[in-house]
Each structure stands twice: as C-alpha cells, then as structure tokens.
Amino acid sequence: xxxxxxxxxxxxxxxxxxxxxxxxxxxxxxxxxxxxxxxxxxxxxxxxxxxxxxxxxxxxxxxxxxxxxxxxxxxxxxxxxxxxxxxxxxxxxxxxxxxxxxxxxxxxxxxxxxxxxxxxxxxxxxxxxxxxxxxxxxxxxxxxxxxxxxxxxxxxxxxxxxxxxxxxxxxxxxxxxxxxxxxxxxxxxxxxxxxxxxxxxxxxxxxxxxxxxxxxxxxxxxxxxxxxxxxxxxxxxxxxxxxxxxxxxxxxxxxxxxxxxxxxxxxxxxxxxxxxxxxxxxxxxxxxxxxxxxxxxxxxxxxxxxxxxxxxxxxxxxxxxxxxxxxxxxxxxxxxxxxxxxxxxxxxxxxxxxxxxxxxxxxxxxxxxxxxxxxxxxxxxxxxxxxxxxxxxxxxxxxxxxxxxxxxxxxxxxxxxxxxxxxxxxxxxxxxxxxxxxxxxxxxxxxxxxxxxxxxxxxxxxxxxxxxxxxxxxxxxxxxxxxxxxxxxxxxxxxxxxxxxxxxxxxxxxxxxxxxxxxxxxxxxxxxxxxxxxxxxxxxxxxxxxxxxxxxxxxxxxxxxxxxxxxxxxxxxxxxxxxxxxxxxxxxxxxxxxxxxxxxxxxxxxxxxxxxxxxxxxxxxxxxxxxxxxxxxxxxxxxxxxxxxxxxxxxxxxxxxxxxxxxxxxxxxxxxxxxxxxxxxxxxxxxxxxxxxxxxxxxxxxxxxxxxxxxxxxxxxxxx
Length: 720
Fold this sequence. Notes:
Elements: H1 2-15, H2 34-39, H3 46-49, E1 61-64, E2 68-72, E3 78-81, H4 83-92, H5 100-103, E4 105-106, E5 114-115, E6 121-129, H6 131-134, H7 145-164, E7 170-176, E8 181-190, E9 192-198, H8 201-204, H9 208-211, E10 223-229, E11 243-244, E12 253-254, E13 263-268, H10 279-308, H11 312-317, H12 319-342, H13 344-359, H14 371-394, H15 400-406, H16 420-439, H17 443-460, H18 468-476, H19 480-490, H20 496-504, H21 511-515, H22 518-563, E14 578-583, E15 598-600, H23 601-607, H24 619-627, E16 641-646, E17 658-660, E18 666-673, E19 691-695, H25 696-706, H26 710-715, E20 718-719
Parallel strand pairs: 12-20
Antiparallel strand pairs: 1-2, 1-6, 2-3, 3-10, 4-9, 5-9, 6-8, 7-8, 9-10, 10-11, 13-14, 13-17, 15-16, 16-19, 17-18, 18-19
C-alpha cells in the first residue's frame, strides 16, 4: 500500500513541475511553479503569496457568500467582490422607495453599513496533505469500490474529528485528482459581513445578459462589503458591539494599469472543472445535456423579460432570479459552441485512443486496458437518467409555487403526537418562508412558466420517465393549460393572506388538508417518482463513473509522466483556494478579428441606449465623461480604462477574485470569461480562454468621483 501511494506522490510532484500555460494551482505547492512565474515576470516569491509562518496574500482572500471570491483592501476589513456576487444582498435591501439596484447604495459612515444576515466570508488558514491517512486500509488492486468508499469516509470522519477537537477553525477534507489525493483545510469563518457600497446596476451590470460572457466588456462589476468581528478580534455572529476586522494582510492597490504582456496572477475559489473526462462524457455534456439546459432556460427568461419590461416592481422582484438563470443559460451556449468549434470531442477521442494503445504496451497497466470501452457503455446507460434529472430541475423545480409549497412538507406530516414545541417551530419557519417568497413573487409569470415547463417535460420525456402527475395531465386534461389553471385556482400557496390565516389556526388535524393542497401534491408526486425511479439508479451509475474516473485520472498522470511530460496535471477545481497565472493580452477568436486587451469609458458611451435598461447611462457618469474628470484614475493615455483581459485560468467561483501584478498589487477584480473560452471547464485552449477583469482604477473612479464615497478610498493603500 505504501509503495502505491509513494509512486502516486512522485507522479503528482512531477506534475507540478510542468509548464503552466493553464492550470489552477494549490497555493501551498507553488514552490514548484516559482521559477516559471518569475521567468514570466513575477517580482515576488511564493512565500509572499502563501505562508503559514507569517502574513501573506492568502490572508486577504475569502470565499464570499459560499459562491464567489472577495479580497480585503484595507486594515479595517473592507472587502471588494463583484456586483453580481453581492447582487442578492443589494436586492435584499432594495425596495421601490429605496431602489439600490437602480440607484446604487453608498454608506457614508460606518453606522450606515447594512447588515446581511447569513452571509459568510471564509478564509483559509492552512492546508496539509492527509492522503496516506485517508487511504489507510485501501488496497488499490483488491479493495472494491464500495469498500473503498466506506474506508475513505470512515477515515475522513476520524481525521476530521481529531482535528476539530484541537482547533476553533472550520475543518474540511477535500479530494483532489478525483480521489487520488486528499488535503485537510483549516478555515476561519466570518459571520458578520455588511454591505458598504454598490454602484447602480447600469454600471455594475452594464450590458446585462446581452454582454454577459462576451468581450469587449464595459461592466463596472464590483460591490463593497466589510467584515466585522467581536471586540476581541474573533469571528462572531452579528452584534451591534462588533468592530471592523483588522486583517493580517490587505492588498495594496496599483494605479499603474496594465500593458500587453504584463505578468498577472489570480487568487480565488474556482468551483468546479472537469478537465480530464473521457470523450464520451464531454460529448454527453456538450451535445445532449447543455442544449436542453439552454433551450428550457431560454424559454423561461423570455417570460421573465416580457413582464420585467412592463413593470419596475417586477423588474426588481425578478432581477436576481433572472441573473441566476441567465448566467448559466448563456455560459452553456458558449461551452457548446466553443467545444464544437474547437473540435474538442474529436480531440478527446484521439487522446482516449492513444491512452488505450499505451495501456496495451505493458501488463502493469492492466487496470486501464478496457476503461474507455467501459466508459462508453456506462455513459450510454447514464444518459436517460441525466436527461430525466435535467428536465425535472429545469421545469418543475422552476415553478415557484410548487417549490414554495415544498417548504411546508414537514408541517403537513405532523400528528396529534407531535410535540407542540416542534409544531410551533415549523409554523415559525413557514411564516418566514412565506414572507421571503411573496416579496419577490409575481403570479402571472409563474403561471406562464408552469404551462411552458410542464408541456416541455411531457413533450420530451418518455412515459416511463414521467411522473404520474404528468401522465395524468396527458390522460385527464384537455391540455396542460387546463391543469395549470386548476392548480393556481385551488392552491392556497398563491395568497400570502390565505397562508397566514391557515397558519394562525393551524393544528395537527389540519395537516391532512395541507398535504392535499394541489401545489404540494404536485411537488411530492414529482419528487417521489424521482426518488424511486431516477435518483437511486442515477446515484448508482454516478458512483461507478466516479470510481472509473479515479482510475482514469491515475492512468492519465502515469501516461503523461511517461509520454508527454510537458503536459500539466493540475487538479480540477473543487472550491478550494487556487492561484492561476498568465499574461495580459488580446486575442483573435476568428478570422480577421483581433481584440485588444482593454476597454474604455468611450465604449460605454458608444453602447448607450436610453430605451434599453442594460445600456442606460446615468447623467452623472455622462457628465464625468464629458468633462474628462477622471482624476488620478485615468490611464497614461488620458482615457478611463474599464476592463481588461489576461490569460489566467478561471471558472465559476473566481468571480470577485483579485487579479494582481508582478509585485502583488491589486489591478482589478475578475468577473467573467470570454464567450469563446467558456469551454475551459472541460477543455482549455490558451489561445482563446481569457479571463475578464474590471480595472481597479474604474472601481476607484466610481467610488470616489461618481459616488463621493471618498472615506473608503482613504482606507486603502494606493500605489501611484
């Protein structure tokens, strides 16, 4: 066993010595990349980036609100992230009277900073390799997949429990290289994070869905928060007595801008990539699953747009929902187009053939001989279950009244024997869910989405993959609309008043009536079918795939170590802190087209259209542009730079990541990728896969010159 792990360690170590034209690198292992980074232009050491012995840049980077990255830019816990990362909280505090989405928000004093209940900022404190301990008892040749999973899970629980007994930090253990390596991570979790500032959406979201994932971009995609701690400096729940956090490190901010060829690097928490899948898996994603996602979400977004354009209140209510659905919708379109244009599936098939040929060259590679054929068979079996899951999530689970009703499920199952204290807690939770739901609900949208979604489910899934509800609609109703009309007429979950009256008088004898509400019945019918007929089999197949992928990953590392040592083998993203690096530069996505590496305020004025919400320009911004009142934030060419692109490998979760120059000074905030390069979660091509960042000078210009929130500028360390 020890011999097997040792050989794997050698492979991994070799991998980290390879060229990094792409890659998401673990900070604690950056020593292996240092020479290349310095040859590319970096002026600092990797110890400055990641150190457990003294303050370093890692101490200024956080996982923001569970899905983005943020960076600390002052000694008072001031934090920058993207506008779209803070969007839910900007909306949360917005009303028609105080429309922070449209008008922006700026706290002109510490007292005006807004509490955001439930938000977190998670900071890495340290990491350690626990592979040997996690895999203790595993024999890679003899242990079955089921036994292996049980051994690993038990070992992880034991290791984690021991670590938690000796620390106040959050402890997690994550697998890397598809379960071939394991690291234990210690995190500090800050639980009092407050909204400090946000530009209006026609700056922070300029271009909207039209420009999303597209270069050139002109989006001031940033928002400002602050971390608060207890008076003794420890992470704590919200309290009026809490004080601004004093970090061990905060990023200095550079006003020097970027030039073609400049070295840059990005800190962040990339969510998920799958760079090492077999061809059949990539083909299934790009040509089977993603097209369904795109089609269904596009239809929902069309419905949202129709109503949002008519009513400012609805526009605010559905802004976050629209952004959530729209982001994935457009990304998936880009992935499909990129993979097909790049001939990504064909290239994956070529590698699979070469890998299999290599496996046949040695008896020692017996575990890899039939892998590709086995992948073909299991993914074919998996496909209808993937499709069934996709149709469920993109149709029924996008009917708001149905998913809202599901939050009452536990209450519908109480009996006369249920303790009164438990019942009262369930009623309290139901009231809270009701308040949240109706704040951002517009029934006509939901009715139209429901009719469309159910019809699409019926049209595109065979009868044996349809819940009883859908087959009943086909058999007993004239059409889907008839069922939808009946559902919305009879359910109480469309009326806040009716629900609260029901809760006021609730007692266990009314649970049956609640369970028979048509919206709750619809949810349970669909989910019961899914649990019994889809989920169990899908999990079984997915577990088999994961085990095969682990073996395939190990084989790929061995293959490249022998055959293609110039191939980098960084681990896929898994929401752990990573560093990527590359150079600033434009690119040519297609014949006769060449993009430069930056955009300016000129482009915003060229795109301005007062009739389209996403392209409205405020009077104040126009005034600053016309007078060229850019202050010290202007580029050396006199223009106001807005965004720039570079060759850093990023993905979802990297939103809000700091992009830094050769000296480790903040240049901007990563917020997107180029349309042509969205395929980078599956296949990376450095010629077109570029990350997009808002220029920090534009951020400061908006804070200072536009908003007049100069107090925030005064907190920062700025390098002219």
